[in-house]
Amino acid sequence: MPGLLKRSLVLAGHRTSLALEAEFWRALETMATQREMSLAAIVAEIDVARAAASPDRLLASACRVEALAWAQRHDGPT
Fold first, then answer.
1. Do residues 43 and 31 make contact, with C-beta atoms less than 8 angstroms apart?
2. Containing H/E element for 6?
3. Of 26, 33, 46, 55, which is least packed with CB atoms within 10 Å of its CB?
4. How many other CB atoms are there within 10 angstroms of residue 35's CB atom?
5. Which residue ranges in the chain fall short of pLDDT 70?
6. Which sign, positive or negative, has the C-alpha torsion 55, 67, 42, 60?
7. Backbone angles phi, psi at 68, to 5 degrees
8. What 3-state DSSP class applies to 12?
9. Residue 78 parent element (H or E)
10. In this structure, how many other beta carbons lie within 10 angstroms of the beta carbon of residue 59?
11. Kind and range of the H or E element at 1?
């Protein structure tokens, strides 16, 4: 299995790095394209929801969960 890919993003005015597997980055990029949003905007939206619902959850985990949920809604159960 390939390693993690790290990307730098600006969230809430702060530069941060996020490391995810390539498959999750592709899912997030597809989400962003379909919603006509930037990748940073999608991740920021996930971050806001994560902070409100599960502040102890890591951002990378929240992104993986959201990407999986999105894929299941759009491609059916895996």
1. no
2. strand 5-11
3. 55
4. 12
5. 1-2, 76-78
6. positive
7. -65, -45
8. coil
9. none
10. 17
11. none
Backbone angles phi, psi at 7, to 5 degrees: -130, 150
The CA distance from 6 to 19, in Å, is 4
Q: How much is the pTM?
A: 0.87
Confidence (pLDDT) at 12 = 87
Tokens of 18: 């996020």
Encode pLDDT of 27-48 as tens digits: 999 999 999 999 999 999 999 9
Q: Report residue 67 as tokens.
A: 């990407």
Q: Using an 8 Å Cβ cutoff, are 46 and 63 in contact?
A: yes
What are the start-end ranges of the H helices in the chain?
22-34, 39-53, 59-75
> Hey, what amino acid is at 2?
P
